[in-house]
Amino acid sequence: MKKQLKNIFIMILGIFLASQVYAGEYKIGYVDIGKIINESPAAKAAQKKLEQEFTPRNKKLEAQAKKINKQKEKLQKESDIMSKDQIESLQRKIMKAERDLKRDATEAQEDFKLRRRDELGKIENRLKEVILGIAESGKYDMIFTNADVTYASDNSAINITAKVLKKFNSN
Known about the structure:
CATH superfamily: Skp domain
Structural class: mainly alpha
Number of domains: 1
Strand order of the largest sheet: 1-2
CATH topology: Protein Binding, DinI Protein, Chain A
CATH architecture: 2-Layer Sandwich
């Protein structure tokens, strides 16, 4: 399916470029979305917000891991003087704590990914509005993003990433 879409896209682009000879000039632009997301203050603020939101949770997970390590050290050092029941009890306690830690860490990671996707989604929606505004005001016939283009030089005339980043940051 993906290959078919790519072939259709290439065919349409070929027709578009071939018709350029007959129909006149087209104004084409290119935007590097990744660069904007990495360099924009909005994206940096979103990243900082996520870090602040998840730092307490990460510290709690680190504390759980340290506690487990201390219990393992205790088991290793004191197993000679502990009874068989005490050893088994501590081993069960360690295994339960490790399962809990693994579950909590997985849950935290999934929550982080969801929140990150939400924050990036907001930024990308605003970015699309900015790109559409520039496309309409600049009378562009077509604007590509790095998802559509394999290569575009930073110095080429069609690369409007800096213009989009400037307008995006001014909103």
